[in-house]
Amino acid sequence: MAFRAGCSLATASRVLNRNGPVSDGMVRKVRRAAAELGYRPAGPTAGKLGQRPVVGVLIPSITNPVFASSLSSIQNRMLVAGHGVVIAQSNYDPGREADAVASLLNDRPTGLILTVCDPLTSAALLPSLPPTVLLNNMPTQRFPAAVTADNRRAGRELTEFLIAMGHRQILFVSGNFVASDRARFRYAGHVDAMHERGLTPLDAVEIPFVSGYEELDLREAMATFSPTAIIASNDLLAFGAIGALRREGFSVPRDVSVAGFDGIAIGRLMDPPLTTIEMPDASMGATAASLLLDIAENAAPARHLDVAYTLRKGGTVRDLTQDPS
Q1: Which 8-state DSSP code applies to residue 316?
Q2: In the β-sheet with 84-89, what is the strand arrangement from edge to edge?
Q3: Structural domain for 3, as ranges
Q4: Which InterPro entries match (predicted)?
Q5: By three-state DSSP, how is residue 75 classified?
Q6: Distance between CA atoms of residues 39 and 16, nearest Å
Q7: Which residues contact 178 (CB under 8 A, 6 or more apart)?
Q8: Domain-embedded: residue 173
Q9: What's 213's domain CATH number?
Q10: What pTM does this model have?
């Protein structure tokens, strides 16, 4: 293999074991040669018959339907490619990401698919990694391979829709921004749209992602800002906001409109159905899996793939321009 790649045995060993400095060009040559020869580095269980190569996947929460959908499509794609999948979750905690990734590395994966809180801050905490693709995070210098939807543009588009429906006081309710750059980008897009229309954006209400949805208390925010509409940073939080409003005697959408992000299936079953930005979670997961295999096994260059989202107009937003009373 070293001969095929045009390098020394020591260089090939450094690439395959990820334990020394090697140029990006040489890394691609060695990986290509390994793929052409059908070589896989021996892991701690390589001697077991039927042992399959694996990829590692880090997600914030295994119970969130968004990540469950992505994970299912990753597993299906990897099954076709003959790979197993090992999973870790961070619980939206930046401090837990390094330990979660370390647990994935114990299985000597072919590569990693990571959804982190913020790749710019997470990078400093993570060790040297095999080929890695970010899922839902924007690419960085360290992690140039990524599959994303444009969350900032989605936040702007959803806000523009509400403004067109006559809403001017719009409250943004979000999980903590430090735990999700997706939520932060969505709020930034909301702020962009408000400024573009000459409106003053309200400060976001931030709550923990893992807990707090069912106990969400919007009394103070409603009394202070009197919003006619609420944007939640994801659909689960939108459901929590609707419950909080109803506990205070508000009707959705008669008194307050509510919209979210993600487009999870349960939102279509609500009465009325939730207005939301629908993200292509399943196709994004499959795309990330294919990109990782291409990089890890074919030495393809890292690249950023942007996947389209859609605005799904449900029944939780009231058109104030038709009935302002």
Answers
A1: S
A2: 84-89, 54-59, 112-114, 132-135, 146-148, 304-306
A3: 1-39
A4: HTH_LacI, LacI/GalR-like_sensor, Lambda_DNA-bd_dom_sf, Peripla_BP_I
A5: helix
A6: 10
A7: 94, 117, 118
A8: yes
A9: 3.40.50.2300
A10: 0.84
- Of the candidates 261, 256, 288, the one whose C-alpha atom is nearest the C-alpha of residue 277 is 261
Q: How many residues does the chain have?
A: 325
Tokens 């992690």 sit on residue = 143
Cβ neighbours for 175, distance < 8 A, ≥ 6 positions apart: 92, 183, 206, 207, 208, 209, 233, 234, 237
Q: How far apart are CA 146 and CA 306, in angstroms?
A: 8
Assigned domain for 132 exists: no
What's the total number of domains in the chain?
2
143 has pLDDT over 90: yes
**pLDDT for 210-251, tens place per residue?**
666 777 899 999 999 999 999 999 999 999 999 999 999 999
Confidence at residue 37, expressed as pLDDT on a 0 to 100 scale: 46
DSSP secondary structure, 156-216, as one string: HHHHHHHHHTT---EEEEEE-GGG-HHHHHHHHHHHHHHHHTT-PPPPPEEE-SSS-STT-
- The neighbouring-strand residues paired with 86 are 56
Place of tokens 């459901």: 239
